[in-house]
Each structure stands twice: as C-alpha cells, then as structure tokens.
C-alpha cells in the first residue's frame, strides 16, 4: 500500500511527510526522460500549416545542431526548443526553457527562453511587428549564440526534403541530460 502524507494543508506537514514526498519525487523524476520523449512525439500531429510537423522541425533543428558540432546540451535544446507548443502556444519558449533549466547550463536555458523573440527576426515585419526587437539584448553575452541558434538551426528547419536524423539518434542524449542531478533551484545565489 502506498504511503501518503499526514497533512491536509502544507503548513501542517512534518519532517517525515516531506522526506516521504522527496522520495516519491526522486523516483518520479527517474521517468522524466520518458515523459519528455513522449511529449516530443506528440508534436508529430500538432500545429498545422507548416510543410513539416513540429516533430520533424525539432528533429531537423537537432540534426543541424549535431552536424554543426554543437555540444550535447545545445543539441538537446535544439530538439526540445518547441516542446511547449501544445500547452503554451504563446509562450512555448519559456516552457521549454523551464523543462531544461535544472539540467543544462544557464546559457542554453537563456537561448531556448529567448529563441521565440530572436526567431521573430525572420517574420515579424510581415505581420506589422518589429523584426529587430531582439536588439534589446544586443549587449547580452549570449546574444550571438541565440542568433546563431535561430539562423543556423531553427529558422532553416522547415524543409520536407531535408534528411534529418530520427528520434532514436537523440534518445540517448535526452536520457543522459535528464539523468543528471538537477540544479537546486531553491538554493539562493551567493550574496
């Protein structure tokens, strides 16, 4: 029989309650890579109108990153950068970054979080927007890395004739990244 905590309100929890929950959370987190891969597969039948599915777009982006010599974190970021499309169509980049944040370096998280703004360089002017909106970050140390991510891997990955690698190629990397100990997001930075 599964144990449950003794409280009805979190303020009434005991040390034993939170140790129990911590153990359940650690065990649940072991399946994160499987859930990420399943969510990615769902992009195969999501948003219409593009010449390729969102899954194929993601695979093309990751393939281009891999062939460009990107490191493992950036390859997985290229694969997962649009994973938030189904649940957060208007802020998908932030959702994708949140999924990656505990497992990759800050630069990669920032690139994924900002890629939507940087990607708008290629289309915003067609819809009355400011294609140079990304320039508000022009002095940011990762500006050029994000611009490269979009130029080389993201905006160019809608090609039905491109021979991308299959998901099985990237599965070991996804499992490797999500098996890392997560960063302690509750730890305060040094003062």
3D structure, described in words:
The structure is a single chain. The chain is mainly α and 191 residues long. The chain has a single domain, classed as Hypothetical protein af1432 (Orthogonal Bundle). It is 50% helix and 0% strand. α3 (54-67) crosses α7. The N and C termini lie far apart (45 Å). The model has no long low-confidence stretch (mean pLDDT 94).
Class based on secondary structure composition and strand pairing: mainly alpha
Number of helical elements = 8
Count of discrete domains? 1
CATH architecture: Orthogonal Bundle
Beta-sheet strand percentage? under 5%
CATH topology tier name = Hypothetical protein af1432
Give the radius of gyration.
19 Å
CATH-defined superfamily: Hypothetical protein af1432
Topology readout:
Blueprint: H1 15-29, H2 32-42, H3 54-67, H4 72-80, H5 92-100, H6 106-119, H7 143-154, H8 167-178
Helix pairs in contact: 2-8, 3-4, 3-7, 4-8, 5-6, 6-7
Main traits of this protein?
191 residues, mainly alpha, Hypothetical protein af1432, 50% helix
């Amino acid at each position: 029989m599964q144990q449950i905590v003794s409280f009805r309100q979190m303020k009434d929890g005991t040390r034993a309650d939170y140790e129990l929950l911590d153990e359940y959370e650690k065990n649940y987190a072991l399946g994160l890579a499987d859930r990420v891969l399943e969510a990615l597969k769902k992009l195969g039948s999501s948003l219409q109108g593009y010449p390729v599915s969102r899954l194929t777009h993601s695979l093309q982006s990751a393939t281009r990153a891999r062939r460009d010599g990107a490191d493992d974190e950036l390859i997985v970021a290229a694969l997962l950068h649009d994973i938030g499309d189904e649940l957060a169509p208007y802020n998908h980049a932030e959702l994708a970054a949140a999924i990656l944040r505990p497992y990759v370096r800050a630069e990669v998280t920032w690139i994924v979080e900002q890629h939507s703004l940087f990607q708008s360089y290629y289309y915003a002017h067609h819809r009355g927007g400011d294609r140079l909106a990304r320039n508000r970050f022009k002095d940011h140390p990762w500006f050029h890395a994000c611009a490269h991510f979009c130029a080389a891997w993201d905006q160019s990955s809608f090609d039905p004739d491109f021979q991308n690698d299959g998901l099985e190629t990237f599965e070991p990397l996804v499992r490797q990244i999500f098996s890392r100990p997560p960063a302690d997001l509750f730890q305060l930075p040094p003062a």
